[in-house]
Design goal:
Elements lengths: L6 H11 L3 H5 L4 H10 L7 E5 L15 E6 L2 H14 L4 E5 L12 E7 L8 H11 E11 L6 H17 L7 H8 L3 E7 L5 E7 L3
Parallel strand pairs: 1-2, 1-4, 2-3, 4-5
Antiparallel strand pairs: 5-7, 6-7
Helix pairs in contact: 5-7
Bound molecules: S-adenosylmethionine.
S-adenosylmethionine (SAM) binds next to helix 1 and strand 2.
Length: about 210
């Protein structure tokens, strides 16, 4: 069953979630966050794009030596990230309201890009990954952390069943990983299962032609 997410619906959802987001999404999803930033293998002065940075829960994980740009569609989520940048005193971070389906950056502008818990919350994941590929240098690292539709029959079926409700809440419960990567021409270097019940997948790709 394919249920479409609308951009306005996502904006409305995250306007509501912004004040309470950190209470729900901080500790439960923390192991995946640490693992995702580790997969970026950040080197001194790397330029990194975080797509759908939200309230900036990953910010404390980045070294002060990298140049981080975070973008998000939701002003309300980004306002929280701005507060976090100020609290953590991170002059190496730039935050912008932007739609990930049409990034306002040039080709090959970043060494690396990451999206944590975002790719199933965007209306057009293919367009977002294509944009991530465009702005990351050839052979740069792209890391995606997300829940994807299970390949187990029963779990996948339950996720399909829940899809209409989840879509109303602002994310897709049944986004399949393999066809998504195939459509954008990304071949995973590694896929690791993380978080509670190993229910989320951490996908590391190299931006090859
Ligand atoms: C579940 S939150 C994840 C936030 C953050 N990455 C984290 O790890 O906590 C999904 C985020 O994706 C953002 N988002 C959804 N569609 C987007 C789009 N087209 N462009 C940019 N951000 C988008 C939402 O506003 C929200 O902040």
């Amino acid at each position: 069953m394919d249920v479409a997410l609308e951009k306005r619906q996502v904006q409305r959802a995250y306007e509501l979630y912004a004040p309470v987001y950190d209470f729900i999404f901080d500790w439960i999803f923390a192991p995946g966050r640490t693992a995702a930033v580790k997969q970026l293998a950040l080197q001194r002065s790397d330029s990194v794009l975080e797509v759908g940075i939200g309230t900036g829960l990953n910010l404390p994980l980045y070294p002060a030596t990298c140049q981080l740009t975070g973008i998000d569609l939701s002003q309300e989520m980004l306002d929280k990230a701005v507060e976090r940048v100020q609290t953590l005193a991170m002059p190496n971070v730039t935050l912008k309201v932007m739609d990930a389906t049409s990034l306002d950056f040039g080709d090959n502008e970043f060494d690396k890009a990451v999206a944590t818990y975002t790719i199933s919350a965007v209306p057009d994941p293919v367009a977002v990954l294509n944009e991530m590929r465009r702005v990351v240098k050839p052979d740069g690292i792209i890391v995606i952390l997300n829940h994807f539709r299970s390949e187990r029959r029963l779990t996948g079926w339950v996720e399909d069943l829940l899809a209409p409700v989840c879509t109303r809440l602002g994310w897709k419960s049944n986004l399949p990983l393999a066809p998504l990567l195939e459509q954008v021409g990304l071949v995973p270097e590694s896929i690791t299962q993380v978080n509670m019940f190993k229910g989320w997948r951490l996908v590391k790709c190299i931006n090859r032609d």
